């Protein structure tokens, strides 16, 4: 038999041609295959494939055209599809799930920056008996199906006879697709279409803050039942045109959003008042206890007014108006001049005369100057820590730490330049159980900012494995010395940690479950305990499974509360939804009540905080039980402590207890990555 490969005249083996052809066909198939629109965070990811192919869950709304007829009739053409482009029947007859959709029609009048809506309603308050005309959506016009998932909607509302056909007009749509009968939840989407009725190009828009900036915290922004999800849509109704007749408050976006985010820091609230909006079906929304997550300083406007996100008017916050400025400074009376340097302001025309975008000094009356967070002052030289070496690391020895102090320009600092400087010794690093913090201001200085400090406390005699040194501290510096704006500011360094072995074994450190970058997506620059702690790796050394607030809690408020990191963070972020109070006593025996915290995101999204799949089960073996004197289980296993930080009911604790034996927790049996009730599946949206 001739086993030599056959060749085509070109000399290419036939087998190679066949393999190549199969590869090309496979690649073509892969390219043409539709991308799975679902992730492990979606209910659709876990549904039966046949069900998914039938239901095609999800919703996308796209407005493609709009016109205003000579008689003022407004109509718009739009498409309803699933994420893969399949047209949807809005009535739910030929495709599963009804689609409810409403529309807004509005214009930005010439020379103005805000919308005026044509779609309005009159709302009368049963409290004040006052009425207000409010911008609103409508769905009581006529629908005409013109294609597969394609429709024309003709508004009931009409444009006025003198409509300005040279002005920007916009059509907004918000929709929901109810698939709850298939256990696939409800899909939401919205869209905005801009046009000029005479056919000219759109040159004027309302585009101050992008939705992506809101979603740094809100994950995602979803208001009014979840159907309004973009700033582009929200600003069509939330304009000076619309107010709440129950409270008299405007719901203009620039005013309402500022006041909501100021919350408890509003001057009117601090004076004993409340900031409330009464909404649908007379539901009361009280924002008087809201704490801005980028606190402690609410002056940092750029948390929301981000640059580089593509907003056409991203610098609008640098153009002062009475409405915008008075929303936060709501104790200023512009009509009389009270708390405005006794200067009445009857219009916005002169605001920019004093309040320029940026002045020569920080903390002046310019927009940027007045809203400078002292922590980020350009005049702070900064503090940079570096841990160089740890010696004498055996059990019973006193560690000798070598470290370097410099400012951000690389200039050497000495310990005497610092107002506070501390080194923390903690272990074991696999899951901390004990720590000691020592004042390192007495460290011996050498050239180049290098220092040496010897701990007074030894490494415990029974220490094993990996232990850790952490560094923290700050300088108190005076800014604008000798002026009426003189102030003392803490210039804190970023924490640094260094691990070492006490017995020659390989380093084994605590898993990184969360990152400071994820914290700062919402908190901007998380810094606690007076600026001393600003890295997760430093926080967990003290907030370990053995720790409670017993040292700070008054005797008449006992028992103590757990402050283990996983328990504390879950409970703080569960806040008002946890069903039982969470009050920690801190420095100066001061109570910190987190029972009213409203997490701005969706707590089902564990990845909002977690990294490295740290939320998955099982947890690493050998983690310590959590001391929780006020909890239903004390001590609580590490998995129980984490999960019952959010699931705080007695039923949840009882479930955890029933699945814990002398052998440990069996949580992973049902909640492991591939289990029926996995973490991802249970939290899917």
Overall residue-averaged pLDDT value:
93
Radius of gyration: 31 Å
Name the quaternary structure. single chain
Helix/strand-derived category reads alpha+beta
Report helical residue fraction.
10-25%
Main sheet properties: 5 strands, antiparallel
Strand content: 15-25%
In angstroms, what separates the terminal alpha carbons? 63 Å
Helices, by number, come to 16
In short:
With 685 residues, the chain is of the alpha+beta class.
Could you walk me through the main structural features you see in this protein, from its secondary elements to its overall organization?
By secondary structure, this protein is of the alpha+beta class. Among the domains are: 1-33, no CATH class; 51-242, no CATH class; 384-523, Immunoglobulin-like, CATH 2.60.40; 576-682, no CATH class. It is 17% helix and 23% strand. It has 16 helices and 25 strands. The strands form 8 sheets. Strands 15, 16, 19, 20 and 21 form a 5-stranded antiparallel sheet that branches. Strands 1-2-8-7 form a 4-stranded antiparallel sheet, with no helix packed on it. Strands 4-3-9-10 form a 4-stranded antiparallel sheet, with helices on one face. A hairpin with a 2-residue loop joins strand 24 (660-661) and strand 25. The longest helix has 19 residues, at 14-32. It is globular and about 90 Å long.
């Amino acid at each position: 038999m001739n086993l030599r490969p056959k060749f085509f005249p070109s000399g290419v083996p036939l087998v190679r041609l066949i393999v190549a052809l199969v590869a090309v066909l496979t690649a073509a198939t892969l390219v043409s295959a539709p991308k799975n629109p679902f992730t492990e965070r979606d209910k659709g990811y876990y549904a039966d494939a046949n069900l998914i192919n039938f239901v095609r869950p999800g919703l996308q709304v796209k407005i493609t055209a709009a016109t205003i007829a000579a008689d003022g009739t407004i109509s718009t053409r739009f498409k309803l599809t699933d994420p893969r482009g399949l047209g949807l029947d809005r009535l739910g007859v030929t495709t599963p799930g009804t689609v409810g959709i409403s529309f807004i029609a509005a214009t930005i009048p010439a020379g103005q920056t805000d919308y005026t809506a044509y779609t309005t309603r009159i709302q009368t308050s049963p409290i004040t008996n006052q009425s207000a005309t409010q911008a609103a959506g409508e769905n009581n016009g006529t629908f005409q199906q013109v294609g597969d998932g394609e429709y024309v909607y003709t508004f009931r509302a009409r444009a006025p006879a003198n409509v300005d056909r040279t002005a920007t007009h916009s059509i907004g749509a918000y929709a929901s697709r109810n698939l709850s009968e298939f256990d696939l939840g409800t899909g939401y989407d919205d869209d905005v279409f801009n046009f000029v009725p005479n056919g000219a190009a759109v040159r004027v828009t309302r585009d101050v803050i992008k939705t992506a900036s809101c979603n740094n915290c809100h994950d995602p922004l979803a208001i009014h039942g979840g159907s309004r999800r973009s700033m582009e849509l929200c600003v069509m109704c939330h304009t000076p045109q619309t107010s709440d007749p129950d409270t008299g408050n405007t719901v203009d976006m620039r005013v309402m959003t500022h006041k909501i985010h100021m919350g408890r820091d509003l001057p009117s609230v601090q004076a004993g008042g409340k900031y409330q909006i009464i909404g649908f079906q007379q539901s009361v929304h009280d924002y008087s206890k809201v704490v801005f997550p980028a606190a402690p300083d609410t002056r940092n406007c750029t948390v929301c007014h981000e640059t580089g996100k593509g907003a056409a008017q991203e610098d609008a916050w640098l153009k002062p108006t009475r409405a915008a400025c008075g929303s936060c400074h709501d104790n200023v009376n512009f009509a009389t001049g009270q708390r405005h340097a006794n200067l009445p302001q009857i219009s916005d025309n002169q605001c920019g005369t004093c309040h320029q975008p940026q002045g020569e000094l920080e903390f002046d009356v310019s927009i940027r100057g007045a809203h400078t967070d002292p922590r980020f002052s350009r005049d702070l030289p900064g503090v940079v820590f570096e841990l160089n070496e740890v010696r004498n690391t055996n059990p019973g020895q006193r560690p000798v730490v070598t470290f370097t102090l410099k400012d951000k320009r690389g200039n050497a600092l000495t310990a005497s330049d610092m107002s506070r400087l501390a080194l923390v010794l903690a272990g074991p690093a696999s899951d901390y159980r004990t720590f000691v913090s020592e004042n390192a201001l007495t460290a011996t200085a050498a050239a180049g900012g290098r220092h040496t400090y010897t701990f007074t406390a030894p490494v415990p005699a029974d220490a094993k494995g990996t232990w850790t040194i952490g560094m923290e501290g700050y300088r108190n510096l005076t800014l604008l010395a000798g002026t009426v704006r003189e102030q003392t500011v803490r210039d804190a360094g970023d924490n640094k940690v260094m691990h070492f072995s006490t017995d020659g074994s390989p380093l084994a450190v605590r898993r990184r479950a969360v990152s400071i970058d994820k914290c700062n997506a919402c908190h901007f620059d998380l810094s606690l305990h007076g600026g001393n702690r600003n890295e997760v790796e430093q926080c967990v050394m003290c907030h370990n499974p053995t720790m409670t607030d017993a040292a700070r809690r008054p005797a008449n408020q006992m028992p103590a509360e757990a402050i283990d990191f996983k328990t504390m963070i879950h409970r703080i972020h569960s806040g008002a939804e946890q069903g039982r109070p969470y009050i920690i006593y801190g420095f100066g025996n001061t109570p910190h009540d987190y029972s009213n915290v409203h997490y701005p995101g969706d707590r089902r999204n564990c990845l909002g905080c977690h990294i490295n799949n740290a939320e998955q089960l099982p947890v690493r073996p050998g983690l310590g039980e959590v001391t929780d004197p006020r909890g239903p289980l004390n001590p609580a296993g590490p998995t129980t402590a984490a999960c019952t930080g959010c699931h705080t009911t007695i039923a949840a604790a009882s479930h955890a207890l029933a699945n814990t034996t002398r052998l440990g927790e069996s949580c992973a049996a049902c909640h492991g990555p591939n289990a029926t009730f996995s973490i991802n599946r249970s939290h899917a949206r």
